Amino acid sequence: MAxxxxxxxxxxGGGAGGPTRIRAMRWLLLIGAIGVAIMIINAYMSFDRVAPxxxxxxxxxxxxxxxxxxxxxxxxxxxxxxLENRLxxxxxxxxxxxxxxxxxxxxxxxxxxxxxxEQKSQQTTEETDKNGGRRHMTSxxxxxxxxxxxxxxxxxxxxxxxxxxxxSGILIVAKGAENPTVKRLILDAVEKGINVxxxxxxxxxxxxx
Length: 209
What we know:
The protein has helices at 2-12, 18-44, 77-91, 180-194, and strands at 100-106, 111-114, 116-128, 134-146, 148-151, 154-157, 159-163, 167-174, 201-205. The chain is α+β, with helices and mostly antiparallel strands. It has a 3-stranded mixed β-sheet, with helices on one face. Strands 2-7 form a two-stranded antiparallel sheet. The longest helix has 27 residues, at 18-44.
């Protein structure tokens, strides 16, 4: 190989400008060798496509629950919706009242009061300081336990009363409420029917369609 290269350089390097031609030839041979090496490497190496990765902390869109437009599963809705339906059905039967829409808002659910066995104890302590002064200290302890009764082998608490949910406001949109007499009838029916103060009841006329 070296002899072949020497012979080639002698053949090209003769005459004027010989050294320049030899340098050019060497550069061409070097570039050609690099090109051949790259082709050989590409022939023996394979590249696999890498699929784009996704952030595992983000669930697929299909698994993300959509926000519910209604709160029908809340304990308040289970009280409000039946009451709204009952009021709508009753008010639409009043003379002069047309289509009615009712919105009820409650601020508490039903409250159950249990029978409690109260136990109070009082303790008085008298202390004397170094100057001969006296002071009395009284401590009162109030404990209570729920009274239970047995039924079919199970212990159950005694219920003294149940307090209905507190209604914070009622909005009524009624056709015919533009008439003062009809509006008064609706107001009386709601106030006395479900025992709600007048200041928590709002009645507005329904627009004409």
